[in-house]
Every structure is written in structure tokens, then in C-alpha cells.
Specification:
The chain has a nine-stranded mixed β-sheet, covered by helices on one side. By secondary structure, it is α/β, with parallel strands linked by helices. Helix 4 links the parallel strand 4 and strand 5. The N and C termini lie far apart (56 Å). Helix 5 packs parallel to helix 6 and helix 9 packs parallel to helix 10.
Length: 425
């Protein structure tokens, strides 16, 4: 046999196989899960080593007209009342945009702590807890902050009891056991004139969720908040069944810290991990997902270092956030078979729009058929990959279809949206 002909034949066969990667997405609108309240980030504050964000940068991240479409902003509550006004203008602007704004305290005045400092752990290893005789003072402190913001035109949508009460931080923080934070919420939660968030632990742990699920505690708070760093257990879902919203309120992936290196951003290492972090919480029935700082090299906007582009430029992580924030906010997650792809699916409150947010981490483009619960003429595809950033493609059908076909690029995160033209029997 002619070897050249054999090689040519194999190449043609390989190309044909590559071109014929296909799949089918099927939406099951009969199985509904959580309603998505939204997505957001912590707004960089002067208390941290990275600077406060400019109005231009804030307008890229938050608001319906922004590029990323985030609708939740997390504020830092400074220790002591003196610096409370530092983020006031930002908070006012956020409310003008119609954003959901909540605030989290890191530490308390040193004289209220068992270790005599605002840190969760002193250099000698001494841990700092809030002295019980100062619990009433702390409850009033939180209420004073709510009132201060209100008197200046900012109505907080929620206030947290404590940032990471289970983390022995060498910086501002405070240790709380699960039973203590539940007791504080039970005793003082309704004395604070704002929705209460608890416990904002480093991990979404069963111990704290179970403590808050007691009958004499459950009605004294409104939002269960937790961080994704320490893993996600399952008891929080019992709170969701009792009407509590479940929010993931802080997460970041700092590859330099994890690897103890100073390398730049690596698409193949970080891109899909960030997508999976958000998607894991969506599949886990969380109502909201909030990143840590909005601007840093590992955040939604870069700071000009570590391969994140110029300072204030939207990063690939920011565009991944946009896939969810722009299309899933306000919708209800539904069951779906995504044809072997990773992702999650959503249905509008009116039932006339379906959305799939998916990742294709393979090197193969895929021809995906979308088996819809209705007929459609209009759709939209958004694609983010190495060379594309939230690229829009209009999916207009020449004739009504309930099984439109969409090409999904290799190595990409995509959002596909279809709008109903008429019912499908």
C-alpha cells in the first residue's frame, strides 16, 4: 500500500472525527431549584494595601449598564466609628445604581476582645474572642453602623455578624464558636434594624449551619453566608428549605499564594477553575456568589501586575463572571442535560427564556443541538476564550425551531440564551 495515501487517509479520517463532535442540551423545566439573587464582589477599600476603586472601574463591574453586570456590592466595616465614612460615597453611588449592598465587619475594638487586640490571633498565638460582657456593646455597634448609613442615605440590604469567625487570622478578626454565634444571633439579631447575615465562615461547614438551624435561632437571621475556601458541606441546604437565602460571600484563587511563586496568569491553569468555582455553587443551590476584591491581578479587574493586563482592565475572570451575572441573575436554576459539558441551566420567571452557561475545556469545537421547551426565533451566544472576551453572536433563526444548533468553540466558556416565540406541544 502507498504509505502517502495511507497517511492522507488517516488525516482525513481524523479531521472528519474532529469536525463531527456533537452533543445535545436538554432542558427540564419541570425541576426547579433556587432563584438567583445575583453576583458581585467586595469593593476595594482604603483599609487594604490596594487602593480604592475609581468610579470608572466601579462602573465596569456593577450595574445593569456595566460590562460585567454585577448587582451585589460588599462593603468593609472599619474598626471604630471614625473611618466609617470612607466608603460612604461609593455606597451612595451603589444604591443609585439599584445594587444590593451588604457590609461585613472584620474586627472589633481591642478592649472588647479576650486577647486585647483587634486581631483574631496575636503573634504569641493567643486567640481573640469577643468578651460576653461586650456582646450588647457589639450589637449596638452594628446597629449604629446601620443607622449611620441610613442617615446618610444608604439603606443596607444586610449586615454580617462576623467575617470568618472560624479563621485564626493574624490580622483584624474575631473567633466565634458555632454555638456562640448562634446564641448572639438569637439574643441580638432582631435588635439590629437590618437583615442579618451569618456566619460568613471560611468554610460552608455543617457545624455552623446546624447551630443556626435551631428553632429559637432560625427566625433571628435572614441570609446564610459562607466562604468557599474551606470546602462546602451540605447542612446549609436545610436552611434553604426553611426560606433562608444561601450566599457565597467571598472567594479568590491566588495562584502565587498557593504555589508560592510569582508567575503570571496562565489561561490553562486558572480559566476553567474560576468557572468551576462559580458553577459549583450554582449547582449547590446558592442564591448569590460574591468574589473577594473586585480589583487585583487575580480578580475581575487587573491591577497591572502578574499578567493581568493594565490596571483597571477586565480580566478573563471578570468576563466569566459576566456570563453568570448578565444572564442568570433573577432566573431560576433548572435541571438540564448539557450533553457532556460542565455548566448549569436557568429559566426566566415568566418561563419564556432559557439560558445555559457552559464550559468546553476540550480542544474540540462542538456542534450542540439545544432541545428547547418551546419554539424560538431569537437567541444569543456569548463566548470567552483565549482570543475572545464575552463575544456576542446573534442566533436568529430563519424559521421557528425547537432544536436550534449552535457551534461551541474549543477551550471556551459560553452562555447560550433562547427566547420563546410560541409554545411547544
Amino acid at each position: 500500500m502507498n504509505k502517502n495515501l495511507l497517511i492522507a487517509g488517516l488525516l482525513l479520517f481524523s479531521a472528519a472525527c474532529f469536525a463531527q463532535v456533537k452533543g445535545t442540551v436538554r432542558f427540564d423545566t419541570s425541576v426547579k431549584h433556587q432563584r438567583i439573587t445575583g453576583f458581585g464582589a467586595f469593593v476595594c477599600s482604603p483599609q487594604f494595601t490596594y487602593n480604592h476603586m475609581s468610579s470608572t472601574e466601579i462602573n465596569k463591574v456593577w450595574g445593569t449598564s456595566s460590562t460585567l453586570g454585577c448587582n451585589i456590592m460588599r462593603l468593609y466595616i472599619p474598626i471604630g466609628k471614625g473611618p466609617w465614612g470612607q466608603s460612604m460615597q461609593t455606597a451612595k453611588d451603589a444604591k443609585k445604581k439599584g445594587l444590593i449592598v451588604f457590609a461585613s465587619p472584620w474586627g472589633q475594638p481591642a478592649e472588647w476582645k479576650t486577647n486585647g487586640t483587634s486581631n483574631a490571633k496575636n503573634s504569641d498565638g493567643t486567640l481573640g474572642y469577643l468578651q460576653k460582657e461586650n456582646w450588647p456593646d457589639y450589637a449596638q455597634y452594628l446597629e449604629d453602623y446601620v443607622q449611620y448609613m441610613r442617615q446618610n442615605g444608604v439603606e443596607l440590604d444586610a449586615i454580617s455578624i462576623q467575617n470568618e469567625p472560624d479563621w485564626q487570622a493574624s490580622y483584624a478578626g474575631c473567633m466565634w464558636s458555632a454555638s456562640d454565634i448562634a446564641e448572639f444571633v438569637k439574643t441580638y439579631g432582631r435588635s439590629i434594624s437590618c437583615k442579618i447575615m451569618a456566619p460568613e465562615t471560611l468554610a460552608v461547614s455543617d457545624a455552623y449551619a446546624n447551630a443556626l438551624n435551631n428553632t429559637d435561632v432560625i427566625d433571628c437571621f435572614d441570609i446564610y453566608g459562607g466562604h468557599q475556601y474551606g470546602g462546602i458541606q451540605s447542612a446549609y441546604k436545610n436552611l434553604g428549605k426553611k426560606g433562608k437565602e444561601i450566599w457565597m460571600t467571598e472567594y479568590l484563587i491566588n495562584w502565587n499564594e498557593i504555589e508560592n511563586t510569582t508567575r503570571n496568569f496562565d489561561f490553562t491553569k486558572e480559566f476553567f477553575n474560576f468557572f468551576r468555582a462559580i458553577n459549583t455553587c450554582m449547582l449547590g443551590d446558592f442564591n448569590a456568589w460574591i468574589h473577594y476584591a473586585a480589583k487585583r491581578y487575580y480578580d475581575l479587574l487587573g491591577d497591572g501586575t502578574n499578567g493581568a493586563g493594565r490596571s483597571g482592565a477586565i480580566t478573563k475572570r471578570g468576563y466569566i463572571m459576566a456570563h453568570f451575572a448578565k444572564f442568570a441573575t433573577g432566573m431560576t436554576r433548572i435541571d438540564a442535560d448539557l450533553g457532556g459539558m460542565e455548566g448549569s441551566a436557568y429559566l426566566s420567571q415568566t418561563g419564556d427564556t432559557v439560558v445555559a452557561v457552559m464550559a468546553n475545556p476540550t480542544d474540540n469545537a462542538t456542534e450542540m443541538t439545544f432541545d428547547l421547551p418551546f419554539y424560538t426565533l431569537d437567541g444569543e451566544l456569548r463566548t470567552t476564550g483565549k482570543s475572545q472576551s464575552f463575544k456576542k453572536t446573534t442566533l436568529t433563526q430563519e424559521t421557528e425551531s425547537c432544536r436550534p444548533v449552535v457551534a461551541i468553540a474549543a477551550q471556551s466558556v459560553v452562555t447560550v440564551q433562547f427566547v420563546k416565540s410560541r409554545d411547544r406541544q
